[in-house]
Amino acid sequence: MTTPAIRMFRGLEGLFCVYKPSGVHWKLVRDTIETNLLKGLNATPPQPLPQEVRLLAHPVSETEAPKGLTLSAVSVAVLSKHPLVTGPEFQHIKVGVGHRLDAPSSGVLVLAVGNGNRALNGLTTYTTRVTRDYTLEGEFGTATDDFSHTGRVVERSTYGHITQDKLDRVLAMLQGVNQKALLLYSNVDMRSQEAYEMAAQGLLGPGGKSTPILTGLRCIRFQPPNFTLEVQCLNETQKYLRKVVHEIGLELRSTAMCKGVRRTRDGAFTLQDALTHHHWTASDVKQAIRQYHSSKKKRKETHTKIKDPALQLPEETAGKKTETYNEAAAKGGIK
């Protein structure tokens, strides 16, 4: 018989995302959520204890009946099935982790429960081409040994000559280099129809494991010495992104360090979907998973109904093409 705890667990199976704070290891986030889910599952009302029939003896007085015992059938609860005897119904629950964030970084962290781990494995493979968005906080004038603001300072330099126009040119140059790398690792003939259709649908990307690739790079705030970059990337690590900030400083004949890395999107999950620390409970996770399933269903319906207009001919043109083909076939021009 299905218990309330099992029914609740089935509602928890799927993908969801949380907001990982800076300075917290991803393992601590996962362990905290696992503990909260276990508490929520085991706090559900237990099933009524099963009953069994027992023959209980009742002594009688000597005046009422001959010497002996009177047996009566009584239904009693099976105490061996009591939670205090058997322990909690769920002893362990596995929460899978998607693309991980190192301790100094913050932002969207995708997690999975139950059969959602299979979908999570599909998202984390190199063949899915799932892009991620980050915001990088940088500061000109200082270089550290690990490219972050917590590292040991190894160099200081001037930055007064840096303008936003110069920064934008460097970013455009870096994006062009990464665009060439993207085409190189795609393993698709760029002159083919397949390459055009994949590019139109945003599916062009590495066919397997590749070096980190920046698919988008722009400055969204420039207040020297501080600046903020918005990055879209594939196969990246947070250490690599900090190194990118360092290399931007070198290209501008200065130095730069990364003061913060925040992931704002991981595939279909954004900051709006991320659960903050106070909402890492079983009920909130269940609601987040339900919302993800409903949005995924809507995306599938939209994908089947709407096709890329760039890949379609106008109706009038399509009709003319068909008529021309039929006329040629009738004349014997097409065999």
Structure described in brief:
The protein is α+β, with helices and mostly antiparallel strands and about 325 residues long.
Question: Characteristics of this structure?
Answer:
8-stranded mixed sheet; disordered C terminus; 36% helix; alpha+beta; 335 residues; two-stranded antiparallel sheet
User: How many structural domains?
Assistant: 2
CATH class of the largest domain: Alpha Beta
Strand content: 25-35%
Contiguous low-pLDDT stretches (5 residues minimum) are 306-335
* Helicity range: 25-40%
What is the tally of beta strands? 12
What is the 3D shape?
elongated
CATH level 3 topology of the largest domain:
Alpha-Beta Plaits
Number of helices: 9
SSE ordering: HEHEEHEEHEEEHHEEHEEHH
Reported for the largest beta sheet, the result is: 8 strands, mixed
Euclidean distance between termini CA atoms: 67 Å
Mean pLDDT: 83
| Proper CATH architecture of the largest domain | 2-Layer Sandwich
Question: SS-based structural class?
Answer: alpha+beta
Radius of gyration: 31 Å
Region (Disordered): 294-335
InterPro entries: PsdUridine_synth_cat_dom_sf (IPR020103), PsdUridine_synth_N (IPR002501), Trub2 (IPR039048)
Family: Belongs to the pseudouridine synthase TruB family.
GO biological process, one term: RNA processing
